[in-house]
């Protein structure tokens, strides 16, 4: 069987890069913990430790379970998109790919998550320009859902949320632009005219952009919205519960809004996983709500560990399985 040249390039992504990626993860975790330690030191170690010690094992388990709801809902949404695109995947394959991609979620700009395209190519034989729309629509869906949740929070939270509506509008505009095939094609074409280089890359980008219209069917959009909303709201609800357990009684929608706002703000910083930006935004917003530092710092640390770092742990666990099954899939295709 003659392999597609694009697929060949994808398959040649060397596994040795996993070492540097894990090193980056480790360094980021150290920086995150160092930052939290510095903030905790500013408020007093005893107060911070006392707040964390108030949490029971059952409470931590519930926080992790709510985060898992988010990842499962978004994995199912990924499967809906994949099937709409025409990929012959089972729900188990989609789950494996989606969770495995979290192992690369703290790479700059989350570009490491494109490893999912590699697995798809190995198991289906599809070229990257045919599967790339999945990554784009997945990001756009998250932006759209988070923007709508934030808009709801601004409307329903007691006392309102200053600045939240503006962020919601920006996220919605970006999500809309990212799913308009004609707009993306125009941008890609302009890029080629300005550079005059890499014609094959720009051609593949145009092919990928034209596939975006497949996701605009009302039933697909409704399913994507429902799954994304359920997932992200689950994590926001976890943050609300956590604050209550730590003695900071904040309105449900305000807590959800703060969580989503901080997550979006972290993403806008461009740092891997939003590390630094999300924590700073979350602590600042909690402070504005009158939450003392001895509560906001440990609450931020706990929710980030049970969301971002929990996702990273799941990804690292699923990554070897995704690699193993994708290699088998590639070998099966080549032996046909």
TrEMBL record:
It is found in: Cell membrane. It is a multi-pass membrane protein. It comes from Albidovulum marisflavi. The keyword Transport does not apply. The chain crosses the membrane at residues 52-73, 140-159, 213-234, 301-322. The lineage of its organism: Bacteria, Pseudomonadati, Pseudomonadota, Alphaproteobacteria, Rhodobacterales. PANTHER family: UPF0104 MEMBRANE PROTEIN MJ1595. Its main location: membrane. InterPro entries: L-PG_synthase/AglD. Keywords: Cell membrane, Membrane, Transmembrane, Transmembrane helix. This is Flippase-like domain-containing protein. The keyword Transmembrane applies.
């Amino acid at each position: 069987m003659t392999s597609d040249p694009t697929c060949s390039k994808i398959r040649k992504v060397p596994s040795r890069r996993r070492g540097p990626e894990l090193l980056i993860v480790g360094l980021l975790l150290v920086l995150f913990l160092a930052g939290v330690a510095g903030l905790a030191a500013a408020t007093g170690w005893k107060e911070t430790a006392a707040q964390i010690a108030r949490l029971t094992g059952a409470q931590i388990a519930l926080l992790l379970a709510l985060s898992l709801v988010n990842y499962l809902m978004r994995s199912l949404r990924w499967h809906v998109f994949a099937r709409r695109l025409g990929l012959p995947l089972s729900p188990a394959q989609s789950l494996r790919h989606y969770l495995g991609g979290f192992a690369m979620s703290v790479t700059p700009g989350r570009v490491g998550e494109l490893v999912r395209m590699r697995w798809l190519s190995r198991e289906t034989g599809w070229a990257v320009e045919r599967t790339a729309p999945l990554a784009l629509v997945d990001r756009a869906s998250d932006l759209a859902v988070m923007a709508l949740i934030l808009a709801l929070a601004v409307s329903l939270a007691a006392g309102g949320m200053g600045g939240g509506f503006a962020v919601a509008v920006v996220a919605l505009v970006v999500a809309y632009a990212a799913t308009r095939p004609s707009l993306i094609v125009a941008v890609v074409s302009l890029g080629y005219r300005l550079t005059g280089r890499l014609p094959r890359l720009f051609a593949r980008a145009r092919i990928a952009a034209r596939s975006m219209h497949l996701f605009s069917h009302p039933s697909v959009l409704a399913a994507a919205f429902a799954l994304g909303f359920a997932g992200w709201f689950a994590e926001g609800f976890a943050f609300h519960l956590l604050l209550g357990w730590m003695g900071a009684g904040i309105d449900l929608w305000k807590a959800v809004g703060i969580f989503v706002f901080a997550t979006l703000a972290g993403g806008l910083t461009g740092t891997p996983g939003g590390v630094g930006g999300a924590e700073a935004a979350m602590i600042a917003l909690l402070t504005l709500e009158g939450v003392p530092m001895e509560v906001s710092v440990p609450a931020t640390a706990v929710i980030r560990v049970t969301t971002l770092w929990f996702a990273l742990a799941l990804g690292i666990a699923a990554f070897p399985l995704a690699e193993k099954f994708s290699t088998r899939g590639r070998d099966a295709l080549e032996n046909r």
